[in-house]
Write a structure and sequence with these properties.
Layout lengths: L2 H8 L2 E5 L5 H11 L2 E4 L3 H10 L2 E5 L5 H16 L4 E4 L7 H13 L4 E5 H8 L17 H11 L2 E5 L3 E4 L4 E4 L12 H15 L3 H20 L5 H13 L3 H7 L2 E3 L1
Parallel strand pairs: 1-2, 1-3, 3-4, 4-5, 5-6
Antiparallel strand pairs: 6-7, 7-8, 8-9
The structure holds adenosine-5'-triphosphate (ATP) and 2-(4-methyl-thiazol-5-yl)-ethanol.
Amino acid sequence: MGVIAKIKEDKPFIFNITNEVASNFAANGLIAIGASPAMSHTPREAKDYGEIADAVVLNLGTLTEDRGEAMLKAGKAANENGIPVILDPIAVGGTDFRTNIINEILTTVKLAAIRANAGEIAVLAGTLDEAKGPDSIIQENDPEIAKTVAKKYDTVVISTGEVDVVTDGERIALCKNGHEMLQNITASGCLLSSFVGPFVSVVDDFYEAGIYAVTSYGIAAELAMEKAAGPGTFIPALLDALYFLTDEKVEKYKQVQEL
Ligand SMILES: Nc1ncnc2c1ncn2[C@@H]1O[C@H](COP(=O)(O)OP(=O)(O)OP(=O)(O)O)[C@@H](O)[C@H]1O
Ligand SMILES: Cc1ncsc1CCO
């Protein structure tokens, strides 16, 4: 059975501690691909959700003390139950508050994948001091930098930009699907981070799951732009394209180069 068909059959439960900019969009995107999302950010239910989810997504966008605490609790509960955890370290290096919590997550939670833009990945690698802001791309997407981060944290890295890099520290794929209109709406990266959730829940090899997720998302963006007039109409068109995406379309349109 194809990966998307399996997601539609399993309806994986994706627990998201995400930011309020992305929350509604990410929930809709997850429903569109066939997953079942929950968004919550209180530390009081993070452990319970972290124990029963099929994947957990930790997104540092609009960070608060409570959200940081909830992320650590959910991440640890997921680890204890063998549930994959995805980290989106938004604007790492930008403030001490978020950098410290991101470092605490990185050192105490085992991650299935880190999904971030190329600038954020460079900060995690130590080759750049700060990722400017949540929406910025300030850096060429360098596969070697992504590989360094994957090795450092023993995880899959999904480093996004015009070309997305997916690596587990050994294997590297350049994923070329996508559309620049993704840059003209907010939270397209946040939705992608949540979107990786259902893929790591149904594909055991998280590197392959990452490739399939970014490629599917990129193809949906390309198909959406066949209908959209600009950023405003692109958002619903992207949700439509995610809803109608199939494994056959992914096979037909995928542009993946393994190095
Ligand atoms: N120049 C580009 N051309 C085509 N697609 C792009 C380009 N830049 C980014 N993308 C795509 O946009 C999506 C989001 O990636 P991006 O690197 O912008 O994440 P981000 O900065 O974390 O986003 P956000 O903070 O807005 O949620 C990815 O699917 C990526 O492939
Ligand atoms: C704009 C914005 N601010 C905090 S999170 C977020 C969404 C994109 O990262």
